[in-house]
Design goal:
The chain is an alpha+beta fold. It folds into two domains: about 25-125, Lipocalin (Beta Barrel); about 145-244, no CATH class. Helices cover about 20% and strands about 40% of the residues. It is built from five helices and 16 strands. It has helices at about 1-20, 30-40, 45-50, 135-145, 185-190, and strands at about 25-30, 55-60, 65-70, 75-80, 85-90, 95-100, 105, 115-120, 145-150, 160, 170, 175-180, 195-200, 200-210, 215-220, 230-244. An eight-stranded antiparallel beta sheet has the order 1-2-3-4-5-6-7-8, with no helix packed on it. Strands 11-10-9-16-15-14-13-12 form an eight-stranded antiparallel beta sheet. Helix 2 (about 30-40) packs antiparallel against helix 3 and helix 2 (about 30-40) runs parallel beside helix 4 (about 135-145).
């Protein structure tokens, strides 16, 4: 009888341990979207196919969950569920379900979003970095990393470096850049990928096409009327870059 009692107690303890959800606290990024963009070239097409959420920042101790879609942030309340999953509750009755799976974080399909998968960033930024910045850093590093040579355009023959923190070297007239991920810039450029090039406090939108190790940067031609939202299309080719 004593032996049976011990077995029952052990079984109960094991059952309780098995149902305790794995703590997902920390940063998770949509690596699948990055990989698809690097492979296919078309940035926003990859983000739409594997997103739209790009990064989760989770803190189970504070019951906090924040996600970024590249344009806006949303805060939710994080709570553990008995089945090993985690629920994120937003204002109103909107809920999302997260589930740690090995080295991935699975966001289950919901009426709002499709299923999405996230991974820890390979090069995590310092603690306290704004939500979304880890995804951007990883994307910039993978998508535009390396040394590019100007094959045509101002500065022809020179070398260009797109740093993962948004700094830009070697492209005449620009010292910083930002890729358009979502929001107003995406609405303005429609089916085209766009980026922001800035020198000092001045900057402009540009349309670009990345095909493997070749990058074309076009002036953004606005076809909209003055009272309409800008409708950007590729204009004159300004630079043709090729990655060494």
């Amino acid at each position: 009888m004593r032996h049976l009692l011990c077995l029952l107690v052990c079984a109960a303890l094991l059952s309780g341990c098995a149902s305790k959800p794995k703590d997902p606290s920390g940063i998770w990024i949509n690596q699948a979207a990055i990989d698809a963009a690097v492979k296919g070239g078309h940035l926003r097409e990859a983000l739409l196919a594997y997103g739209p959420n790009l990064e989760w920042s989770l803190n189970s101790a504070r019951q906090q969950a924040v996600f970024s879609n590249g344009f806006e942030l949303a805060d939710g309340a994080l709570s553990a569920q008995a089945n090993g999953e985690w629920q994120v509750s937003f204002y109103g009755e909107n809920h999302e379900t997260l589930k740690p799976e090995g080295d991935q974080l699975l966001q289950l399909a919901s009426p709002t979003w499709p299923e999405q998968r996230f991974m820890r960033p390979k090069t995590p930024l310092a603690s306290g970095a704004p939500t979304g910045s880890n995804f951007e850093y990883s994307l910039y590093e993978a998508y535009l990393g390396g040394t590019w040579k100007i094959r045509s355009g101002p500065g022809e023959g020179g070398l260009v470096l797109f740093h993962a923190d948004g700094k830009l070297e070697g492209l005449p007239g620009a010292e910083r850049y930002a890729l358009c991920l979502a929001g107003d810039c995406a609405a303005m450029s429609g089916d085209y990928d766009s980026l922001w090039l800035q020198l000092g406090k001045e900057g402009n939108e540009w349309v670009f096409v990345r095909d493997g190790d070749q990058l074309q940067i076009f002036a953004a031609l606005n076809r909209a009327q003055p009272d309409e939202m800008p409708d950007l299309h590729p204009g004159e080719l300004r630079w043709l870059l090729e990655r060494d």
